[in-house]
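Question (not urgent): is this output format expected?
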Amino acid sequence: MLRDQSMNAVVFDAGPLIAMDRSDRRVIALLERVAERDLNVVVPAGALAQAVRDPARQARLSRFVRQPNVDVVALDRAAAVRVGRLLQARRMSDVVDAHVALCANDLGATVVTSDPDDIAALDPDLTVMVI
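Got this back:
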């Protein structure tokens, strides 16, 4: 997937965060490609909340989100309104998936997900990489 040389970021949902924390080789390889291309990783805060269960035992995840190329994006008031409008328009209800889709759309970024169907239903124009 990461073919577009103009792209400057990938957006992770909870699935790849959980996989990375479990040392999934696919995510490790992806992160190596991200580093080689000097890309940023965007993590919507809700996706991080879905992945964090016991930070003391999730050292990989804790280290990952503190990396300088990782940006955890809050769901502020303006984003919340946009998320709500997108969900209403698509007749869907997953706030985190909608925030992931909006972040990726705003950045022209690839979504890295374990749930491609919901992301595609929210924005069929997004590039999606399945983990």
